[in-house]
Amino acid sequence: MKKYRHLFFDLDHTLWDFATNERLTLNELFDKYDLRHYFKSFNEFYERYVPINASLWEKYRNWEIRKIDLSIGRFHQTFQTAGLDNIEMAELFSNEFVATNSQKTNVVPFTFDLLEYLKPHYTMHIITNGFTESQKVKLERSGLKPYFKKVFISEELGVQKPKKGFFEYALKSCNAKKTESLVIGDSLEIDILGAKNFGLDHVYYNPYSIPHEVPVFKEIASLHELIGWL
């Protein structure tokens, strides 16, 4: 096994359990804002929200919309599918979602086992496209922060994964060589192809074993698989 010096971890869905935390937060807000008057159930609300959110995130990554269009628009558009056209309510909902969601502490299985194993041997960093105000709180509240030397957030860098400029900036800031660096992430398009196109070894965390035809350096279904491999 080749020896790396720097490990660059994605945060959401790779270490911090975004899916679980997001669903818990939205369920709380669904009840608080009494959305049962507009949606038959929370599941109906959530199933409408997910594709809208994903579409707006893609536009945001491509600089087609502003941060505010994403953060408020995802809820405003979801509300509109049920006949609720209230932009002020969507803004309040959005602000509360970001503040509440970042306080959640669920992490992906084996996260701390892996980080404890890696800490004595590697310098570890976070690379994320999330919002600055939420990502820093997530790291602090979940107990992840002490494991990482540097945190690279696209909003602060002015460039997002999978752009080469993001990875170039991160490596230069760490004085890290490509041959000494490894990227670990859950998004095939954002983390893995971004790393691959920049010439970095990479680990694709694919917990549901979703089929794909992209050749990757290494693929895992559990973070536990990295214990012993690294």
The residue fraction in helices comes out at: 40-55%
Distance between the termini: 7 Å
Range of strand content = 5-15%
Give the beta-strand count: 6
Basic shape: elongated
Determine the number of helices (DSSP H or I, runs of at least 4 residues): 9
Largest sheet: 6 strands, parallel
What is the radius of gyration computed over CA atoms, rounded to a whole number of angstroms?
18 Å
Walk across the major sheet and give the strand order: 3-2-1-4-5-6
Order of helices and strands: EHHHHHEHEHHEHEE
**pLDDT below 50 for ≥5 consecutive residues: which ranges?**
none
Q: What is the mean predicted local confidence, pLDDT?
A: 96
Structural class: alpha/beta
Write a structural description.
With 230 residues, this protein is an alpha/beta fold. The chain is 47% helix and 12% strand. It has helices at residues 18-32, 42-61, 67-80, 87-101, 111-118, 132-142, 154-157, 164-174, 188-197, and strands at residues 6-9, 123-128, 150-153, 181-185, 201-205, 218-220. The chain has a six-stranded parallel β-sheet. Strand 2 (123-128), helix 6 (132-142) and strand 3 form a beta-alpha-beta unit. The protein is elongated and about 55 Å long. The N and C termini lie close together (7 Å).
